[in-house]
Structures are given as C-alpha cells and as structure tokens.
C-alpha cells in the first residue's frame, strides 16, 4: 500500500516542526551564561562616572572663574549634568538603604 504523497508531506512537516519545538525548548531550558560584568562592577563604574562628572564640573568652574574660558552655555550644561547625576546617585543610595532597612525588619 502506497502512502499518498500529501499524507507523507504532512508527516514530514510535523516531524520537522516537532524538531524545531524540541530545539526551542532545549534552548529555553539551558542555563543562561553568567553575565560578563557583575552588579558590583557596574555600580563601581557608575560611581566613577559620577565622580568624573563632578571633577569635570569643578575644573570647568575653576577655568571659568579664572577667565580661561567664557562659554557660559557649556558651563551651565555641564553643571546641570553633574547635578542630575549626583541627584540620581543619591536617590539610588536612599532606595538601597531603605531596602536594607526593610530586610532588617523581616523576622524569621
């Protein structure tokens, strides 16, 4: 008894789809690779960038005050950037301290 070509094609199509599904499931079950950079390193880099912005701001203010540069527009932009970065860092610090206090309150 010969299998009709339409039924054979449907069977092969179903087999290929099941293989694709198995591959997709095995990829989803695979353990994700460890991040190249940890949270601590990311936090350290962020704090360094904020510190660099503060140092750049101080240098620009000193340069402007001494008369070496007269670009008020650039000075104001850098002052705002440094101020915003410091406010964000302070807000994150506050949230971390708040989370720590909540964890301390948990009773076992």
Automatic annotation (TrEMBL):
<keyword id="KW-0966">Cell projection</keyword>
<keyword id="KW-0282">Flagellum</keyword>
<comment type="similarity">
    <text>Belongs to the FliE family.</text>
</comment>
<keyword id="KW-0969">Cilium</keyword>
<dbReference type="Pfam" id="PF02049">
    <property type="entry name" value="FliE"/>
</dbReference>
<keyword id="KW-0975">Bacterial flagellum</keyword>
<dbReference type="GO" id="GO:0005198">
    <property type="term" value="F:structural molecule activity"/>
</dbReference>
<dbReference type="GO" id="GO:0003774">
    <property type="term" value="F:cytoskeletal motor activity"/>
</dbReference>
<dbReference type="GO" id="GO:0009425">
    <property type="term" value="C:bacterial-type flagellum basal body"/>
</dbReference>
<dbReference type="GO" id="GO:0071973">
    <property type="term" value="P:bacterial-type flagellum-dependent cell motility"/>
</dbReference>
<protein>
    <recommendedName>
        <fullName>Flagellar hook-basal body complex protein FliE</fullName>
    </recommendedName>
</protein>
<dbReference type="InterPro" id="IPR001624">
    <property type="entry name" value="FliE"/>
</dbReference>
């Amino acid at each position: 008894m010969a299998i009709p070509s339409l039924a054979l094609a449907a069977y092969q199509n179903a087999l290929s789809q099941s293989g694709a599904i198995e591959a997709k499931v095995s990829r989803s079950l695979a353990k994700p690779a460890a991040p190249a950079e940890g949270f601590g390193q990311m936090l350290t880099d962020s704090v360094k960038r904020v510190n660099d912005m503060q140092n750049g701001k101080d240098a620009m203010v000193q340069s402007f005050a001494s008369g070496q540069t007269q670009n008020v527009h650039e000075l104001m932009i850098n002052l705002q950037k440094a101020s915003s970065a410091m406010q964000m860092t302070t807000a994150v610090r506050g949230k971390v301290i708040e989370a720590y206090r909540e964890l301390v309150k948990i009773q076992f």
